[in-house]
Design brief:
By secondary structure, the chain is of the alpha/beta class. It folds into 2 domains: 131 residues, Rossmann fold (3-Layer(aba) Sandwich); 134 residues, Rossmann fold. It has 8 helices and 10 strands. A 10-stranded mixed β-sheet has the order 3-2-1-4-5-10-9-6-7-8, with helices on both faces. Helix 2 links the parallel strand 2 and strand 3. This is Universal stress protein. Belongs to the universal stress protein A family. Pfam families: Usp (PF00582). InterPro entries: Rossmann-like_a/b/a_fold, Universal_stress_UspA, UspA.
């Protein structure tokens, strides 16, 4: 199948925002867009008239989404698919041959209960391809990409994705490394010198991690930021002036215990812009 981006829709505001974002992303990638709507598996005995009406409504959701995508990204190759079943199961299957999955942060209808903690969190980090979660709020573009990194395999995958996104967009990249004191060090009598010492070490570590990526992507302007701060707060603040935040599905070091449900989970809840969750390759 041709390289393509998959977006799930149910007609909700955040789903419409996801469709628009996915259409533009497909164009940047030079691929196609596949729009998927999942309807409930209606019980046997459903009146025929009602089933036909609901089916027509579902088709209308897809037609509206396709029209929105073509309007946002003229020339994009759009296909639609009406599926029956559970949204998570269908989208996990769709992810098998897609470049990435894009979904809204909340939903309704065929994506009933599409809240962070349900479909979004059941996909992010659980499929091999990146998962982008888009909020429904429209806001002006800032043109920048933010990526959180700590040297873990997942953050390396996030860096690869983020540099690629920045290059395709012709945008700057802010590479953010946030660190915290080890629990045993909190309350140390040498608190300030300890912070200064660790800060210098973390700055050098960040420079070493980014060096090969800068060499591979000399066209990308990189701003390196190292902060003594909680990663979720740091990335949340950075998202206010970004078009996309990229995080790995789990991490280590400065992103201590960053399994999905901690840092990635927190960023999905608090970021002000779309969030891409990237899993390390097997």
């Amino acid at each position: 199948m041709t390289a393509h981006v998959v977006v799930g829709t149910d007609g909700s505001p955040s789903a419409e925002a996801a469709v628009g974002w996915a259409a533009e992303d497909a164009v940047r990638r030079g691929g196609a867009l596949r729009i998927v709507h999942v309807r409930e598996d209606w019980r046997r005995g459903t009146p025929r008239e009602l089933e036909e009406s609901l089916t027509e409504e579902a088709r209308g959701v897809l037609e509206t989404a396709a029209s929105l995508a073509r309007g946002r990204a003229p020339g994009v190759d759009v296909t639609t698919s009406l599926e029956t079943g559970r949204p998570v199961e269908v989208l996990r299957r769709e992810a098998e041959d897609a470049e990435q999955i894009v979904i809204g942060s909340r939903g309704r209808g065929g994506f009933a209960g599409l809240l962070l903690g349900s479909v979004s969190l059941s996909l992010a980090g659980h499929v091999a391809v990146p998962v982008v979660v888009v909020r429904g709020e429209e806001r002006g573009g800032h043109g920048g990409v933010v990526v959180g990194f700590d040297g873990s395999p997942e953050s390396e995958a996030a860096l690869e994705y983020a540099f690629g996104e920045a290059a395709r967009r012709g945008a700057g990249l802010r590479a953010l490394h946030a660190w915290q004191l080890p629990v045993m060090a909190v309350g140390s009598v040498a608190y300030t010198p300890l912070i200064e010492d660790i800060s210098g070490t973390e700055e050098r570590l960040a420079t070493e991690i980014l060096a090969p990526w800068r060499e591979r992507h000399p066209e990308v302007e990189v701003e390196q930021t190292v902060l003594f701060e909680h990663p979720v707060f740091a990335l949340g603040e950075a998202s206010k002036a970004a078009d996309l935040v990229v995080v790995g599905s789990r991490g280590l070091g400065g992103f201590g215990s960053a399994v999905l449900g901690s840092v990635s989970h927190g960023v999905l809840h608090h970021a002000s812009c779309p969030v891409a969750v990237v899993r390390a390759k097997a």
